[in-house]
Amino acid sequence: xxxxxxxxxxxxxxxxxxxxxxxxxxxxxxxxxxxxxxxxxxxxxxxxxxxxxxxxxxxxxxxxxxxxxxxxxxxxxxxxxxxxxxxxxxxxxxxxxxxxxxxxxxxxxx
Length: 110
Hints:
The chain is an all-alpha fold. It is 60% helix and 0% strand. It has 5 helices and no strands.
């Protein structure tokens, strides 16, 4: 079965800058989250990467406190059902991007 053209996502001149903007925003967000993780768990920034297992850095209380710090930093609340799906800084970035006010994030990184 062929896909309809409108069902496909095509990068073109009209949406290219939006895509670049979204990628840059996610990269900036991820760098900020890694910085918060390093500070929270008192480890070197260089020890934290996109796929660092956060629960290996501390206990459950430390993890909950980290999530509260993230919520405070980005001014939104992480749904409790999502908490068990968060294992890495990249997971946090995806949750923040899905739930935070995008305009707020853009202003934050200007």
